[in-house]
Amino acid sequence: MTSTTPRPIPDGVPERIRHYIGGELTDSADGAVFDVLDPVTNEVYVRAAAGKKADIDRAVAAARKAFTEGPWPKLLPRERSRVLNRIADLVESRDKRLAALESFDSGLPISQALGQARRAAENFRFFADLIVAQADDAYKVPGRQVNYVNRKPIGVAGLITPWNTPFMLESWKLAPALATGNTVVLKPAEFTPLSASLWAEIFEEAGLPTGVFNLVNGFGEDAGDALVKHPDVPLISFTGESRTGSLIFGNAAPFLKGLSMELGGKSPAIVFADADLETAIDATIFGVFSLNGERCTAGSRILVERAVYDEFVERYAAQAERVVVGDPADPATEVGALVHPEHYEKVMKYIEIGKTEARLVAGGGRPAGFPTGNYVAPTVFADVKPDARIFQEEIFGPVVAITPFDSEEEALELANNTKYGLAAYVWTNDLKRAHNFAQSVEAGMVWLNSNNVRDLRTPFGGVKASGLGHEGGYRSIDFYTDQQAVHINLGEVHNPAFGKGAKPVD
Q1: CA angle 359, 363, 365 (to 5 degrees)
Q2: Around Cβ 74, how many Cβ atoms within 10 Å?
Q3: pLDDT (tens digit, 9 = 90+) per residue, 470-479?
């Protein structure tokens, strides 16, 4: 699996990746480092500082000082908005560089990495606008009382981000946390620390005050665990797998921290016989194979009504075989290399399991012409039973399970028959059915005749094992702020007067 010919490293890759604490690039307190691999060759191309508790302690202290003594939490929303817009401008101006580094580090196709970089800029611009337009509740009882709500930043936010589309998902947390006046400590995924290292120069150039942003690289069991358990970090926002989310939930509980956790998914795409079949196939191909299949909202279980099942499977498998697998740096590539050899081995094991559980109709292993690297051919299984592991468990790769159904009731039962509940996709031209099915499916987000096109104002999050809480739009503002109710009396004070009753008898 290891190539002997290293790929050319893009311009802008540092000699080593360091932490960023209190406005300074720094090594780990104990000097520890870890290897970062090129997913195409699995060769080490850079080493990153491996943070532990001592490094988290330094970062939290810097963030706490910036919160209690610095100007950022006290700035007017418009002043913070200007900084966020400058950040967006800088990200936009560097989108090609960001995309090249992200693609090299993660294996994402360059065309998709470029879209993620632009989405990161839009995240900052969106919250820059939202924080200025923010209107809080006020209530009045004429002549009696006025009640209004103050919003206040909470403190140091701990942000723990995943390795799939890392730069964009970091922006999704950084933008609202900073917009609301908090300071942050970011712990990026150890598989993909490269693009996170660019935030420091962007924030400095945009004028973000020293100490407001801090970054500690490292492993979840070291740096991540220390961040979750730190008593001066009242908020943890985490995106990752459900098992890790459960550990974070338990470790944060003694501190009564605010938690927002976007976890795993095994999302169904339900295709009824009356759907536009060509559009549904295009959407469900993209929905599971884009971003190399490494996406939490992937529609990785496709449920198809029996009347069109055979035609759907035949056409879907043929189209999956035509998906272009290639070098992530090639603009024509549609599926690149998986992020890391550990993840590659996990996905390949699930493919072997699937071969014992269902009918393989496309892919099923390493694609031809790619003897090395973390390449997986787009893989399609048909006739998948609901108790199969490839139906129930999150694979997080370019692997899809297709299952037939005979009735709307059976489709709903199959859709809800996993521990997850992040997203669902419904394809039908029956408007009544679409809305009723959306209401009944156990998912935090549902797309009707649409594929993962999301308005940033809407809530993002799941149910069941797919998450806790929601972010997006005003839900992010709610998570990153304390809401304080203030009550003002306008008239006569209406309250009982204790201690003014009859005098006691001698």
Answers
A1: 105
A2: 9
A3: 999 999 999 9
pLDDT reported for residue 137: 87
Kindly state the tokens that stand for 398. 């370019």
Nearest alpha-carbon partner for 292 in 241, 331, 344, 351: 344
pLDDT in tens, 147-194: 999 999 999 999 999 999 999 999 999 999 999 999 999 999 999 999
Active site residues: 262, 296
Give me the phi and psi of 160, to 5 degrees please: -120, 115
Distance (Å, whole) CA 455 – CA 474? 12
Handedness of CA 13, 44, 371, 241 (dihedral sign): negative
Q: What is the pLDDT of residue 451?
A: 87
**Token couple for 334:** 């549609």
Element (H, E) at 145: strand 145-153
Would you state the pLDDT for residue 1? 37
When pLDDT is cut at 50, 70 and 90, the band that residue 496 belongs to is confident
- CA nearest neighbour of 444 among 454, 434, 459, 432: 459
* Reported pTM: 0.94
The pair of structure tokens assigned to 440 is: 């009944």
Residue linked to tokens 């969106």:
126
DSSP assignment letter at 499 = T
Number of Cβ within a 10 Å radius of residue 470: 20
How many Å apart are CA 285 and CA 279, to the nearest integer?
10
Cβ atoms 7, 41 nearer than 8 A: yes
How close are the terminal C-alpha atoms of the chain, in Å?
98
